[in-house]
Design goal:
- The structure holds 2 protein chains of 2 kinds.
- By secondary structure, chain A is mostly helical.
- Chain A is 68% helix and 0% strand.
- The longest helix of chain A is centred in the C-terminal third of the chain and has 29 residues, at 116-144.
- Chain B has a single domain (35-139), classed as Fumarate reductase/succinate dehydrogenase, transmembrane subunit (3 helical TM bundles of succinate and fumarate reductases), CATH 1.20.1300.
- Chain B is elongated and about 65 Å long.
- Classes of the chains: A mainly alpha, B mainly alpha.
- At the A-B interface, α4, α5, α6 and α7 of A face β2, α1, α2, α3 and α4 of B.
- Chain B: This is Succinate dehydrogenase [ubiquinone] cytochrome b small subunit.
- Chain B: Keywords: Iron, Membrane, Metal-binding, Mitochondrion, Mitochondrion inner membrane, Transit peptide, Transmembrane, Transmembrane helix, Transport.
């Protein structure tokens, strides 16, 4: 810039004038910095860094992703499996500790006394996770042997699982 | 499964979500030593899942009262399958690296509960009508 304006040599000469070259000249002209630094040991630096890291906010995740076939059935597989397992664990522990209350006769009797609508609702609520987890489990086994490992495969098998889940759920709820 | 990439061991999470350095920033990252049993763990888990397909199918097809062995196999394999699933949930969401007290507590609680569940399932299959027959009767009650 200075060179293009033909000021290069003049500017250089001004700066290099012996009186200006002395550091004390600049120190008096430039405003004093109010920030002071102090030496910090390695350990203190790490402690300080860690203290700052703890104040860092959590970046947005999970909710920023569009619901897609690649991950919605995946988490639903865990949720349905977990729910069915909680039922199995809950019943088994209940029978272990209070066999007189949770024996088959009492359970069947209790369920039989429920209104028809509640029975159908209950069957539906149980059939959905069972059907989905079963079919999606087979989908996972397909991936485990290296099949359907493409975006097309993920979507194709995904829609197949949803379709089979719907049919199986209706069959279990109304025809079994 | 949704798999989150694990943090290296040199990062410790004291408040459950933020990574804090152990040692200095220049220390090399340490990783768990590879172990062949991890492969066997995965193979066993997958074989068990695959095995549940014909077992579930058989439970639908035959009358369980005449096949108590089916109830025993179904009960044991479903409990182990559930245990491994719960264990993965613990590993993913309450890992001992992030939760030094809650993580191991969850792990040992799960183990204890699973033992209790196995006994409960055995008792029910032995002294009552068995799991498959219970499901059939409850479903058609």
């Amino acid at each position: 810039m200075n060179a293009s304006l033909g000021l290069g040599s003049a500017f250089r000469r001004a700066c290099m004038t012996p009186s200006l070259r002395k550091p004390s000249t600049f120190r008096n002209v430039l405003p004093r910095r109010t920030i002071t630094t102090q030496p910090v040991s390695q350990t203190d630096a790490t402690t300080l860094l860690n203290k700052q890291r703890l104040n860092r906010p959590s970046s947005p995740h999970f909710t920023i992703y569009q619901p897609q076939m690649t991950w919605i059935p995946s988490i639903f597989n865990r949720v349905t499996g977990g729910a069915l397992s909680v039922l199995l664990y809950g019943f088994s522990l209940a029978y272990l500790f209070v066999p007189g209350t949770f024996d088959s006769a009492h359970i069947v009797e209790t369920v039989a006394s429920l209104p028809e609508s509640v029975k159908y609702a209950g069957k539906f609520v149980l059939a959905v996770p069972f059907a989905f987890h079963s079919w999606n489990g087979i989908r996972h086994l397909g991936w485990d042997v290296g099949k359907f490992m493409t975006i097309k495969g993920v979507y194709g098998t995904g829609y197949t699982v949803i379709g089979l889940t719907a049919v199986t759920t209706l069959w279990l709820t109304f025809f079994k | 499964m949704i798999a989150y990439r694990p943090l290296p061991n040199s990062l410790d999470c004291t408040n459950g979500r933020t990574a804090v350095y152990k040692g200095t920033v220049n220390d090399p990252t340490t990783f768990p030593t590879p172990n062949r049993t991890h492969v066997h763990h995965w193979s066993f888990e997958r074989l068990l899942s695959a095995g549940l397909v014909p077992i579930t199918g058989a439970a639908f097809a035959v009358s369980s009262t005449s096949y108590p062995v089916l109830d025993a196999i179904l009960g044991a394999s479903m409990v182990i399958h559930s245990h491994m699933g719960f264990d993965q949930i613990v590993v993913d969401y309450v890992h001992h690296r992030k939760f030094p007290i809650l993580g191991p507590t969850a792990n040992w609680t799960l183990r204890a509960v699973t033992v209790g569940v196995l006994v409960g399932v055995y008792q029910f299959n032995t002294n009552d009508i068995g799991l498959t027959e219970l499901i059939v009767r409850t479903w058609t009650a």
